[in-house]
Structures are given as structure tokens and as C-alpha cells.
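Need C-alpha cells for this chain, all 141 residues.
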Amino acid sequence: MKNGVVTIIILTFALFFSAIFFEVSRPERGNLVNSSDEFNINVQKITLHKGMVRLNDSIIVSGNIKPFNDSSNASKIKFDKGFCLGDITQGYQIIKKRNNDTLIIIQSSDTSYFRFIDLNKIDEDDLTFKQFFDKIFKNKK
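Here are the C-alpha cells for all 141 residues:
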């Protein structure tokens, strides 16, 4: 009886950790956009995965990109406070110019502006565990 329970517990842990390993190690298909990239595409297909938005199965951007308005780009569209890039339905044009942090989205005749998040840059106010430990151990050398 005890051997059967122990076997089931071991198999459960093995299944759990193998599922986590498979999910973490699965490569993303597409190009993760950084600030030096430039593109102008018509988005026909959107896929959401782990907080990322994959556009037309080729370009990957953060799904947490928020719209912004200022005097130079006043939009007619009013967004809810929690609205982000991942909430827009397909059928729009998205433009990003090289070395610029603004994504321009044109849907029908409306233009919206989103602040681009460069996931390749380190945000000192929001470190991952790896970045945190790298920072600690590199400073001690």
C-alpha cells in the first residue's frame, strides 16, 4: 500500500515538473521586436501567449503596451484604463519606426499611439529574479 502511494506521488511530481519544463523551454516562433527595429504591417492574425502578442505569426511584442495621448497625437479614441495592445481586434495597420518608442496603430480611419516596451532593455524598477541576482553578484566582483 505504501509503495503504491509513494509511486503515485513520485509520478505526479515527475509529470508536474516535466510539464513546467516543456512550457518554459518551448521556443517562440517569430521575432521579438526591440527599439532598433522598424516595420509597417497589416495585422490579420493575432495570437496571445504568456503576455505576448504575436502579429501575423512573425512579430512578437508585449501585450501590456498601453495607449497614450498628448498634445501632439490627440486621439479621438478614448480607452478604458486597463486597455492595452492585446485587446485590439485584428484588421489594423501597425507602424514602428527605427529607434522610436511609439507604435502607431491605424484601424479604419482612427489612429492610436502606444508606448513601445523594449523587452531587451533592463528596467531597474522591475527586475526579474535573474536580473536581480546578476546585478548583486556582478557588483561584488
